[in-house]
Amino acid sequence: MWHSAKARAKRNSIPFDIAPTDIEIPQLCPLLGIELVKGAKGFNPNSPSLDKIIPELGYVKGNVWVISMRANTMKQNASLQELQILVKNLEIKIKGQ
Question: 43: closest CA among 68, 19, 24, 12?
Fold first, then answer.
């Protein structure tokens, strides 16, 4: 996970100052509450994934955490505002049926 992040940072010219010891893998995804499954072959929704909390800051101390691949994929290209709008509109749609 650390090596991959370091390579991505170099490839994308973003800051990187974390050490392997800065990466803590919780049992549950802090965003979705699903179990994180380590060591599974390939990526699956429950795979642990290193996330930049504020993407522009890069992989720096205090700006990374481990979440599920599913959560990371969901927030990958969306802003917080877009995610809030998505949830609001989903709730309206589901309650309206």
Answer: 68
For residue 81, give the amino acid letter: Q
d(CA 56, CA 89): 27
Q: How far apart are CA 36 and CA 56, in angstroms?
A: 26
pLDDT single digits (tens) 43-85: 799 999 999 999 899 999 999 999 999 999 998 888 889 999 9
pTM for this prediction: 0.85
Decide if 24 contacts 66 (C-beta within 8 A).
Answer: yes
- The answer to whether 9 touches 15, Cβ cutoff 8 Å, is yes
As given in the structure block, the two tokens for residue 72 are: 């990371």
Q: Which residues pair with 16 in a beta bridge?
A: 59
Beta strands in the chain (DSSP E): 48-52, 64-68
Which DSSP string do the residues of 11-34 spell out, in sequence order? Answer: HHT--B---GGG----SB-TTT-P
